[in-house]
Amino acid sequence: MSEEHTETTGVDAVPAVGLAEELPADRYIDRELSWLAFNQRVLELAEDPSVPLLERANFLAIFAANLDEFFMVRVAGLRRRIVTGLAVPTNVGRAPTDVLADINRTAYELQLRHARCFSEQVQPELAAAGVRIVDWEQLDDADREILTDYYEHHIYPVLMPLAVDPAHPFPYISGRALNLSIRVRNPRSDKVEFARLKVPQMIPRYVRVDRRESADDVRFIPLEGLIANQLDGLFPGMEVLDHHVFRVTRNEDMEIEEDETENLIQALEKELLRRRFGPPIRLEISDDMDEATLELLVREFDIDEQQVYTLPAPLDLSGLFALTRVARPDLKFKPHIPVTAPQFRTSSPSEKPDTFSAIARREVLVHHPYESFSTSVQAFVEQAATDPDVLAIKQTLYRTSGDSPIVAALIKAAEAGKQVLALVEVKARFDEEANITWARKLEQAGVHVVYGLVGLKTHCKLVQVIRDEGGRLAHYCHIGTGNYNPKTSRIYEDFGLFTASPEVGRDVTKLFNVLSGYAIETDYDRLLVAPLQLRSGLLERIEREAEHARAGRPSGIKLKANSMVDEAIIDALYRASQAGVPIEIWVRGICSIRAGVPGLSERIGVRSILGRYLEHSRIYSFENAGERETFIGSADLMHRNLDRRIEVLVQLTDREHLARIDRFFGFAFSDEVSSWRMLPDGSWMRREVSEEGEPLPDLQDLVMTDRTEARSRRPR
After folding, report:
1. Do the strands 583-587 and 604-608 form a parallel or antiparallel pair, or are they unpaired?
2. Which residue(s) pair with 193 in the sheet?
3. Which of 34, 170, 214, 415 would disulfide-bridge 300, Cβ 3.0–4.6 Å?
4. Is-contact 279 250, C-beta < 8 A?
5. Of the given ranges (255-259, 457-461, 587-591, 672-676), which has the lowest mean pLDDT?
């Protein structure tokens, strides 16, 4: 549910939006507050009693992890610009300091609500179901003996209490780590001293009390609670007066001046080291902390009152991810096994599909995680690596897993003597270190590794395979909306198009030449490519819909994206709405457009759908007087995507694929499916029951059923 790693630097510049005087000044919703509204929707899933209990705990963890990243990047960038006096562009006409105050107030209110959801709803209900989080006082002597033994053998040896006094300066506190602030008294001098103890991050956050218990009755104690009850042994001869939990979030935004460096990898590694020591952005403290300790922390971190979040324990509920591993299927979503796309089915489960033959017959559209990544994308790359007729493979890699079969296949192909090009985006936020490691491993295997264009991230999802078929070179391509990551493919919703179209092959060849060499290319047939033509291509199509509406021809726009911020696109949609174009927008996260405002956007409807899978695909569909144009791809409607990234949208042309997208949109935009709807004031209302009071079906359940039933349909 994460906003896929916010990946922006500071605050995006606002491009010029022509004819802005025709539209009201307050036509945009602040992007940061809109993001907080998205995370509130995640929290509402945790509060929903109809969601299985361990899944509710998972949504609590997702909310916490999302908010950490929001502060590390978005709030950090905004605060840095304010503090340093840099210009802070804003499209909402308000002072940046006022926006920052609203962000802090709203985020704090949500964190308090988040804590209440855990303590008053999820934790008691889990306990009633046999999954209990306990504290030391609730344990008997036998339990304590077991935990003390575990502490002495697995925890105590790695603890490092650090004193703070004239001989011991205040220690560096790493970001996102839990810490105990401890006050001790020296009985000889009666002097009170302060110490800090970091809760080890390599030890499970929730410790099983008794490993012999059945899965129907399990107990956990928070690691910090276990450590806190063993403090006397860490400070022998001293009197432990009290302890409190705190946690700091640091600025982990990254700035790399690529034009001034000869070696991107070295510059990135240096910046990664600097990021560890970014300035504090948020201090979370337990609500029992004494004033003296708080004053010390505020002084040492050099933060203001607005940055202090006083919360009930436990802090950092992202630790609840660990509870989802409990073997209680009755407390989780019913498992869904992805089906193999009909075109890639084989007569035996052990038989590998011949992806090239299937794609050569007809373009194939796959929908993850409802359809299997391993029997489509992974099988395609693996077959290319071993096929003796394959001469070359070109692929972009933005985020992939540590044990990626995709990377292994590229290495295998290079070792077999094939030409292999991998464009590794080492600047993918929070995956930089992993991507550097994989880039070097690929280079060592003989893969041609490039890092994209200076000043631009390469975010498009492309694979191209060149195959010798009887003396003729055939181009097989995959263009997707999601990363080549087999792990996230099981929880991220994405589309991918496989095609042997010569037209697309030429387009992708041109684009890879841009990415790996020196070329400026704007002439594509079925692709829209950022940053040179994607925004203009979308704007032209939006205006075309307005012209159709004014002429009385069929018109309509349906969009699905993760985020919508770009002012030029938003203004064009407002004008299309005023011209009579019906517009339906499906957005997961940030949305700066206002829906249903009289005189501005009566014909614009905006909804959001969240669930077990992260809605990640991007789809742009235009009615075009009955000659519909539909694109899928990697680009959201944000400045970074349209101006500072290589992004690709590909046009779908197969009638069955267009019908499938229509069916998908039909589910999503139905009033009979659970979703959140944006109101004219910019707030969101969840609609989860029908007018008759019956629960509305979940979109993702509907698509699961639809894809499972499609398994019995024979491809044409």
Report:
1. parallel
2. 184
3. 170
4. yes
5. 255-259
